[in-house]
Specification:
This protein is α+β, with helices and mostly antiparallel strands. It has helices at about 15-30, 85-110, 120-135, 140-145, 150-160, 265, 295-305, 325-345, 360-385, 390-420, 420-425, 450-460, and strands at about 5, 35-40, 40-55, 60, 65-70, 70, 165-170, 190-195, 205-210, 230-240, 245-250, 255-260, 265-270, 280-285, 305-310, 315-320. It has two domains: about 5-110 and about 160-285, Jelly Rolls, CATH 2.60.120; about 295-460, FTO C-terminal domain (Methane Monooxygenase Hydroxylase, Chain G, domain 1, Up-down Bundle), CATH 1.20.58. The strands form four sheets. Strands 1, 2, 3, 6, 7, 9, 12 and 14 form an eight-stranded mixed β-sheet that branches. Strands 8-13-10-11 form a four-stranded antiparallel β-sheet. It has a two-stranded antiparallel sheet with strand order 4-5. Strand 2 (about 35-40) and strand 3 form a beta hairpin.
């Protein structure tokens, strides 16, 4: 089976204590938030409250919402937490992360789910995993003698969790929960889904902590097919198949499970609510190829290579007016604005509950974005000069129209989302900010926020 289940008594007691204290600390400090996600053009609050903790500078995107990691303590990275308790909670989650990483390596090795049919390689993998567990670490220097590079890389890529999405829900505080639609499994905290944006065939590890013992747990009437409605369960079914019966596995305090290899693609899972409040820590190998600060800063540098400063004056100009270059710069401009700046500020000041770590990189991104606004205005000036051949000019105009129409549409959409009824219902510190935003009167920006006139001018 590619679903591995571990009862709580297989996990060290000390680790249980640290992690469970960490959950309660984060809850006490108000660090969990319901996300205002977008599904089919509509905004919804998730019934589950969440916080993302992980590698500094990583993000994780789900349901059109980019979450930004509260960074866990990392050597060489200065992180100022709002309290020592939040620091300790993040540290506990790193320890859980390391433990789950080793469990995943053991499980993959035990199931021979490595990318090889060579039994000698599998034997070496077994030695490798044993060496990891004995040393309690995953240092390549210590262990690489046991394993070929390809298999070392494969194991490492598929089990080195770079973040954990923490969930909290008290079902009795949620007025309405959707019913599981196919197998009469009862209340769902999280509907059937695949986890998004993960490295291919990577393991997902989940640690569950339900605050058991409340009187609400005593269910007298089991009207669900074989499942105790008081107990939390994880549901599993074959993807896009409602004929094959689904599976519901009970989750008690401190239980954990691993979804190995391609299980997250071939199957869908859901979370079935019990009666008591529950925390979970879901460890993932997020695909950060387009979701890390390092990536987006690299994109900005690439775009700004086309900006030239005249050494004899303060005048700025563009190095190239080739359509391909302009298209690339303007697409990066959109990516910075809508995938990073607006996503971050849409979540209000929630991250300040834990740390101010993201403020500095966001200010730097905004600085780059302002330069890109200037670059757009320089392209528009060149078009008005009519110095290009007619063919070149038409190409540039067509390219600009596409990107600016998209920019205008997305600005309107984000502005509307910030003023939606759902957004307005949030407490002040969680309210979405429509940022960057400026009016023509108060601004030193080279272009207006509303691009309608610019677009009409280009069309004519």
């Amino acid at each position: 089976s590619k679903l591995i289940f571990r009862k709580s008594d297989t996990v060290p007691e000390e680790l249980h204590q640290m992690v469970q204290d960490g959950f309660l600390t984060l809850r006490k400090h108000g660090c969990f938030f319901q996300d205002l996600v977008r599904i089919k053009g509509k905004d919804f609050f998730t019934p589950v409250s969440r916080i993302l903790i992980g590698k500094p500078g990583c993000t994780y995107k789900y349901l059109n919402t980019r979450l930004f990691t509260v960074p866990w303590p990392t050597e060489g990275c200065e992180i100022k937490y709002c309290s020592p308790q939040i620091h300790d909670a993040c540290k506990a989650l790193i320890k859980l992360n390391d433990y789950l990483h080793i469990e995943a390596v053991k499980a993959l090795q035990g199931q021979n789910l490595l990318d090889t049919k060579d039994t000698t390689v599998i034997d070496r993998e077994q030695n490798f995993a044993t060496s990891l567990i004995e040393k309690g670490s995953f240092s390549k220097d210590q262990s690489s003698c046991y394993v070929p590079e390809d298999d070392y890389t494969s194991l490492n890529n598929r089990t080195s969790y770079n973040l954990t999405l923490l969930n909290y829900m008290d079902p009795l505080q949620i007025p309405y929960l959707k019913q599981e639609p196919y197998f009469e499994m009862g209340n769902m905290a999280v509907s059937w889904h695949h986890d998004e944006n993960l490295v291919e065939r990577s393991t997902v590890a989940v640690y569950s902590y339900s605050c058991e013992g409340s009187s609400a747990e005593e269910a007298t009437d089991w009207n669900l097919k074989g499942r105790d409605p008081a107990v939390w369960h994880v549901g599993l079914k074959v993807a896009w198949d409602i004929e094959t019966p689904g599976l519901a596995i009970p989750l008690h305090q401190g239980d954990l499970y691993l979804m190995l290899d391609d299980l997250n693609m071939t199957h869908q899972h859901c979370v079935l609510a019990g009666f008591s409040p529950r925390f979970s820590s879901t460890h993932r190998v997020a695909d950060c190829s387009r979701g890390a600060l390092e990536y987006i800063f690299g994109q900005c540098e690439l775009a700004l290579q086309n900006l030239q400063t005249d050494s004899n004056s303060t005048a700025l100009s563009l190095k190239s007016l080739e359509t391909a270059v302009i298209k690339q710069v303007e697409e990066i401009h959109n990516e910075v604005e809508f995938e990073w700046l607006r996503q971050f500020w849409f979540q209000g000041k929630r991250y300040l509950k834990c740390t101010d770590w993201w403020l500095k990189p966001m200010a730097k991104l905004e600085e780059f974005w302002r330069k890109m606004e200037l670059m757009t205005s320089l392209v528009l000036q060149e078009v008005r000069k009519k110095e290009q051949t007619e063919e070149q000019r038409n190409e540039t105009i067509s390219c600009l129209l596409l990107v600016l129409t998209e920019r205008q549409r997305l600005r309107n959409e984000w502005a509307a989302r910030c003023q939606s009824e759902a957004a307005e219902s949030l407490p002040e510190e969680q309210k979405p900010e429509c940022h960057p935003f400026w009016t023509n009167e108060e601004s030193n920006m080279p272009l207006p926020f509303d691009l309608e006139e610019v677009i009409v001018h280009l069309q004519n």
